Automatic annotation (TrEMBL), chain A:
Keyword vocabulary terms for this entry: Cell membrane, Membrane, Transmembrane, Transmembrane helix
Record protein name field: ABC transporter permease
Signal peptide bounds: none
Lineage top rank: taxon: Bacteria
From TrEMBL, chain B:
Pfam families: ABC_tran
Entry-linked InterPro entries: AAA+_ATPase, ABC_transporter-like_ATP-bd, ABC_transporter-like_CS, ABC_transpr_LolD-like, MacB-like_ATP-bd, P-loop_NTPase
Protein name: ABC transporter ATP-binding protein
Residue ranges annotated for the ABC transporter domain, each copy included: 6-224
Segments crossing the lipid bilayer: none
PANTHER family named among the record's database cross-references: ABC TRANSPORTER ABCH.1, IMPORT ATP-BINDING PROTEIN
Lineage, broadest ranks: Bacteria, Bacillati, Actinomycetota, Actinomycetes, Streptosporangiales
GO molecular function: ATP binding
Amino acid sequence: MKLRDLWAESLAGMLARPVRSALTTLGTVLGITTLVVTLGIAATAGNQIVGRFDELLATSVTVEVPRGGYHALVSWDAAKELRRLRGVTSATALAQNDASSNLVVTANNLLDPTRVSGQTLAVVAATPDLPDTTFGRMRAGRFYDAGHVARGDRVVVLGEQAAAMLGIDSLEDAPAVFVKDRAYTVIGIIGGLKREQILASAVLVPPGLGPDFGLKDVTRVLVATQLGAAELIARQAPLALSPNRSGELQVNAPPSPKRARDGAQDDVNGLFLVLGLVSLVVGAVGIANVTLVTVMERVAEIGLRRALGAARRHIAAQFLLESSLTGLTGGVIGAGLGMVTVVGVAAVRQWTPVLDVRLALAAPVAGALVGLLAGLYPALRAARMEPVDALR
Amino acid sequence: MPEPVIALSGVCRDFPTDPPVRALADVDLRVDPGDYLAIVGPSGSGKSTLLNVLGLLDRPTSGSYRLDGVETTTLRDGARTRLRGTRIGFVFQSFHLLSHRTVVENVMLAEVYGPHPRGGRRARAEQALRQVGLEHRIGFVPDRLSGGERQRVAIARALMARPALLLCDEPTGNLDSRNTGAVLDLFDGLRADGLTILVITHEDEVSARAKRRVRITDGVLRETP
């Protein structure tokens, strides 16, 4: 018997009773759909939660420096030294305190009674690495550099919101801002900050100018690490910054993204996976049942085929293939329905659907396997039938 | 003298019931190529058992059965199945057509399990249907045919595999007299073409058309003139 003949006979056998075949498929469809939806939603939801720990967050370490008394816990140079740690891409030391957070800043020192010219803004002292560490972009001008710091130039960089509030949108005529009646040249406007976005409404000054505003000591160190290095850097940074008093520093490191994903998937999977498997078993029992009934109904056909020269294995192969095809059909439909459901749920929740190609391919195979297993006993029954009895 | 198509010698078939039943008792039978033989007998006489043995559907308890010169009693299951598929064409009382397949597909079924090539199968099936005068019914499903037509489809199916022997079990049992006549005419034609036909029947009209008649009573075979 040729494979194409076997295929044609099985297909014809399955299509002989289309309604029954369709109903038989239903069990597998439900089972496979449940499985695909479960795994798909779990992957999608897992990715969603992981999505919040995005690359930026996963590479951000912040060290909070408490007030150190007479001696500063962390020196301004220490942040630069931190770059020598493997895995650190950039580090910035900041200084900010309550007093510096509410300073009246004006764009000129004319007193115009009709307008509110002063804005209450935060003044923050920061080392020149800030644009790198916060992934900020200069909207205009430039950031101050080591030279400005060394010379003690009276320059500032405005966050873009601060600049907008002060009405400074271009640096062409070298604007200045006045804080505590002293003038500072604005040399740049920084925007697009990815972390520490609050700095967009701050006035950034070089560390050397900090004492003007009561900002002598470093209060915070921002560290950007390479992907995957955050955990390590979080342990090493305090030691590097303040070898003698590292225990006093507080480190904020991102939680391990891996654990978050596993946790999310475990929650969703457990129950529904069991549900899917149960429906698959029910589907298999359904196929087995119907195939057995079909075998009993088609006793005469089996006898005829034996009379026409069909060996036992031909009969077994035909019924096995029929039940496998039923399972495969269920698997294909189930995989399709499952995928559509996952996409639908993701759309409603405004998630990004995560569809594993392997899942899409494995689901029909699983359906066919279920059909194959379910067909084993009925096929065996059919093959064992004696032609004499079958033709009676 | 050519090799006989069927050569039974000392064939017995016992059923291990309580008490044991001897359905065939020491049967000798020789059927030569081109014979048209009718086996007649009342129900329960062992007709069906004889047909099953002849059709390789059942094994005799003892004795020898040579089909086309091949000793079949010592063959294994697979070899008997192949022999059955290639050498014997079956015609059943209840036709045994697949109701959801067309007439031509039913006929083509005869070649599914043999060594026959797929190419030209449909043409050969249509040829077989032409042989039984049903070329105008090729695309019909069996439900739309009359009983006689259905039996002719079954005969076409049996002829399809070019068997050495056409084994017919009450071929006209479900047919009215007009259809019976048509089927018997067909047998006459096939027989004229040299086919060996063995018909089991209890109808005198059928057996009367055969060249040879054998009566079976309580498992014992007797040639009748």
